[in-house]
Write a structure and sequence with these properties.
The complex is a heterodimer of chains A (about 260) and B (about 260). Chain A has seven helices and nine strands; from the N terminus they run βββαββαααβαβαββα. Chain A is α/β, with parallel strands linked by helices. In chain A, helix 3 crosses helix 4, helix 4 runs parallel beside helix 5 and helix 6 packs across helix 7. Chain B starts with 20 loop residues before the first helix and ends with a helix. The chains are: A alpha/beta (about 260), B mainly alpha (about 260).
Chain lengths: ~260, ~260
């Protein structure tokens, strides 16, 4: 498989005295979707931030190796939970913003708008769009730079269940077609088994790799009702259930 | 056990005041009308408070004689230079304070130390530094506008969602591009709100500076009319200042409408 491999070695991270991640070793294989799951506060988003170079780890190293497309403008590209769209720019301008080095940005914008079904909303302001449409713009913006690796931070968590299912289908089709290496953070286990080829379970804080499981089935054709995926989802829930409950108690104690 | 029977009483609504321009104009016109009626009935002596018709007549006289423009043009030039320069440097320093740690603490220390000083108290010093001419008046305005602009701009930059800045960084935008495309547009609403405050401050300081050392200007005109107990002209000058304030507020409103259409 061609593409970019992302290797995280001995990643530790602390916010002042609070250790969030402790000795994470992880390889995101080229062209695969690796999903990070774990209880609240286990450091999933922190790990994604470190993988994308937005956070400096307290210890450890992130390395990439592999081929990137000739027209790639941003090898490691984020998709944000809250969409991170500029409210003062239209949909098309939000996408064009990140195409500064592209020789023909208008064509690239038109292409990703068509790919994500947004062509007729090119001139709309973000506030005029639903949550699902906004995240479509976020995904279109990410695809516009021809990423070698997508880093997705709970991209569907702010959406309602129906929109989430629809976007999940679209996104898995897009990723399957493009074969883009993807590191995907979610707290939703159903989402994890629908998208993940490698699922990494983190323990509660400080986050450590508790288990890595593989689902060696193509992304296309997976449904929420597939028995093997349902069984995997139950297995993952059993794995993190106690940690999730403990993390929740910790959160309540911390607030008291 | 109590029993409920009947329609559910509406408990929502309210807490959403709306503007009504007719009510605003009607209130002002009503007050002016009452004032005129009280003066016509002899309830108010015209030396203490001239009736609106007398003020209007004085204002008309000032317009046709060209005296108003003579004073107003001098004031507008000072206002434009003073406000623009104070705003320009204020936004620059506000951005620096909002964006860079090296500027933040020193910048805020200077602002905290100098902002509370009544700027009028500095006019004699500015006259020593810049002379009795235009320099001292423009400096007074610029100084008065500078500090609130720094505070408004730095606060506006602080309030730009960091997630948007991280987005720009994650796509490899340069620092200059992030400032130009994310920070400045994101800070613009609060900066424009600051303009409303600083334009009012500038008008107040303009009048004060012109009262201290000027022959031309609305402030000088008002002071001279007051010294002569010419209350018709004194209030005509004050009406001009009020209209100037309204005009500036309207212009800022138009600027907001043009630049913040996305809201």
């Amino acid at each position: 498989m061609t593409g970019l491999r992302l290797t995280l070695t001995g990643i530790c991270h602390a916010y002042r005295d609070l250790t969030v991640l402790d000795g994470i070793d992880l390889t995101v294989e080229p062209g695969e979707v690796t999903v990070l799951v774990g209880p609240s506060g286990c450091g999933k988003s922190t790990l994604l931030g470190i993988a994308g170079g937005l956070l400096q780890p307290s210890a450890g190293r992130v390395a990439v190796d592999g081929d990137i497309p000739d027209d790639c403008l941003n090898p490691l590209t984020y998709v944000f939970q809250d969409f991170a769209l500029l409210p003062w720019r239209s949909v098309a301008d939000n996408i064009a913003l990140v195409l500064g080095k592209c020789p023909n940005p208008a064509a690239r914008v038109a292409e990703v708008l068509a790919l994500t079904g947004l062509t007729e909303f090119a001139d709309a302001w973000p506030k005029q769009l639903s949550g699902g449409m906004r995240q479509r713009v976020g995904i279109a913006r990410a695809l516009a730079v021809r990423p070698a690796c997508l880093l997705m931070d709970e991209p569907l968590s702010a959406l309602d269940a129906q929109t989430r299912d629809l976007l999940l289908e679209e996104f898995s089709a897009i990723v399957a077609r493009a074969g883009t290496t993807t590191l995907y953070v979610t707290h939703n286990l159903a989402e994890a088994v629908r998208l993940g080829q490698q699922i990494v379970v983190l323990s509660r804080r400080p986050g450590r790799v508790r288990e890595i499981v593989r689902i060696d089935r193509p992304l296309t054709g997976r449904t929420a009702r597939d028995p093997d995926l349902v069984a995997m989802e139950e297995h993952l829930w059993r794995t993190i259930r106690d940690d999730a409950a403990a993390a929740e108690r910790e959160r309540i104690d911390g607030k008291a | 056990m109590a029993r409920l029977d009947g329609p559910v009483r509406f408990r929502g609504g309210g807490f959403a005041p709306r503007d009504n321009r007719w009510a605003s104009a009607g209130t002002l016109l009503g007050l002016v009308g009452l004032w005129q009626m009280a003066a016509s009935a002899g309830l108010i002596k015209s030396l203490f408070l001239p009736p609106p018709i007398a003020i209007g007549a004085a204002l008309w006289q000032l317009i046709v004689s060209g005296v108003l423009w003579q004073h107003l043009s001098a004031s507008l030039v000072r206002l434009a230079w003073g406000w623009t320069s104070g705003t320009f440097f204020g936004i620059g320093m506000g951005l620096a304070v909002g964006l860079w740690s090296a500027c933040r603490s020193p910048g805020m220390a200077v602002v905290a130390a100098l902002f509370p000083i009544p700027k009028i108290a500095l006019v004699p010093l500015f006259i020593v530094w810049f002379g009795i001419g235009e320099g001292s008046k423009i400096a007074t305005l610029a100084f008065g506008v500078f500090f609130p602009t720094v505070i408004a701009t730095a606060g506006a930059v602080d309030n730009v969602p960091r997630g948007l800045i991280r987005m720009g960084q994650s796509f490899g935008l340069s620092t200059a591009a992030i400032v130009r495309t994310i920070v400045l547009p994101g800070a613009l609403p609060a900066i424009l709100s600051g303009f409303r405050v600083t334009s009012s401050i500038a008008i107040v300081l303009l009048v004060a500076a012109e009262m201290i050392g000027a022959e031309q200007g609305i402030g000088a005109f008002v002071l001279s009319a007051g010294n002569l107990y010419d209350t018709d002209n004194l209030l005509a000058g004050i009406v001009v200042l009020s209209l100037l304030g309204l005009l500036v507020a309207w212009a800022i409103g138009q600027l907001e409408r043009a630049l913040l259409a996305w809201r």
